[in-house]
Amino acid sequence: MADQSRDATTSRSGNSSESRAHSMNQQGGRGYDQHQQQHSATTTKRARSPSAQEDASEQQGHPQKKVHTQVAEHYNARPDVGVEKRKESTIFRMKSFNNWLKSVLIGRYARQRDRVLDVGVGKGGDLLKWSKAKIQFFIGCDIASKSIEQAKERYRTMRNPPFEAHFHAMDCYSEPISNVVPPNQVFDMVSMQFCLHYSFETEEKARMMLHNVTSQLKPGGVFIGTIPDAYWIVKKLKSESDDRLEIGNSIYSIRFERRDTFEKFGSKYWFHLEDAIDDCPEYLVHFPTFQKLAEEYGLELIYNKKFHEVYEEASQELDFNQLLFRMNVISEEGNLSADEWEAANIYLAFAFRKK
């Protein structure tokens, strides 16, 4: 992989990348089913429905849909194409790289017999990672109901999963997790991969997100995740000509409405990632604000690195280095393209520990 300072438009040979890669239970599920029976109405209608006024405007084709509605519709519309079909993706290597990086985070912080809450579980693409970590209990939540059904099916077809799992379609940025999770259920870890930025639409949503992360996370428990790097995005936008509102390359684009001011909450942009995200609204996460809010909820930052930095660090470790090849990030056929490598640097990884 190229050094972070290297021009992202410069081609990188497979050999150079390969060379660098070589060098480089207390609570369990008790009380859960009883809680589910008590909240059957909640679990059959998980995600908060738009108001009647919102429904009417949407039926009339009004363009101002609520962002949570747009996000849910976007991910509900994404098919689960299967392993072989995914190999045909134009960003197959980047998707593999992102999966590798999540494996690094989980590998560093998950422990055997952990109880895990995964917010933004999607179609359950990380279930195998959790299985390899030998956790004992898992709850996955996501705003997209169809994705939740696919996650349930993926779990059902796993071979002898070592952990008990439950799945819920709900908006974890607008309603408390206690609507679906019994209050005596304690978690050792919370994971939020590529989705936390939606909570920065408003301070209220960001606070609800952090409440849901911390309210049932045990002291010493860990909160891990991945988010777009607002500093990198804005810096790159500012490096463009004065009137330009968009950055990107052949596989991604980030488009703003304005470039003069960016608020701590509600700084919206539209993100397109080839064969993954179709011009979906997202929000900048001002990391100092995120960290300050997290401290209010008893979280201490213990890790914060850009994806390129995570790669440079973790690829030096034998297990993670070998995983680069097993997960097809690097192979005899090639590695990430220059444009994929640049797109990967949009993101950063973080970890907090509850005091």
TrEMBL record:
Cell compartment(s), UniProt: Nucleus
Positions annotated to bind mRNA: N98, N99
Pfam families per UniProt: mRNA_G-N7_MeTrfase (PF03291)
Any one annotated GO CC term: nucleus
Biased composition (Polar residues): 7-27, 34-62
Record keywords: Methyltransferase, mRNA capping, mRNA processing, Nucleus, RNA-binding, S-adenosyl-L-methionine, Transferase
Residues covered by region (Disordered): 1-82
Principal location listed in the UniProt entry: nucleus
Domain MRNA cap 0 methyltransferase, first and last residues per copy: 89-355
Gene3D superfamilies assigned to the protein according to its UniProt record, in alphabetical order: Vaccinia Virus protein VP39
CDD domains linked: AdoMet_MTases
Site positions (mRNA cap binding): K123, K129, R154, H197, E282, Y347
Origin: domain of life: Eukaryota
Catalysed reactions listed for this entry: a 5'-end (5'-triphosphoguanosine)-ribonucleoside in mRNA + S-adenosyl-L-methionine = a 5'-end (N(7)-methyl 5'-triphosphoguanosine)-ribonucleoside in mRNA + S-adenosyl-L-homocysteine
Gene Ontology terms, MF aspect: mRNA 5'-cap (guanine-N7-)-methyltransferase activity; RNA binding
InterPro entries listed in its UniProt record: mRNA_G-N7_MeTrfase_dom, mRNA_G-N7_MeTrfase_euk, RG7MT1, SAM-dependent_MTases_sf
List of residues binding S-adenosyl-L-methionine: K102, G120, D142, D171, Q193, Y198
EC class (word): transferase
EC number: 2.1.1.56
Family per record: Belongs to the class I-like SAM-binding methyltransferase superfamily. mRNA cap 0 methyltransferase family.
Protein name in UniProt: mRNA cap guanine-N(7) methyltransferase
Gene source species: Mortierella polycephala
Lineage: Eukaryota, Fungi, Fungi incertae sedis, Mucoromycota, Mortierellomycotina
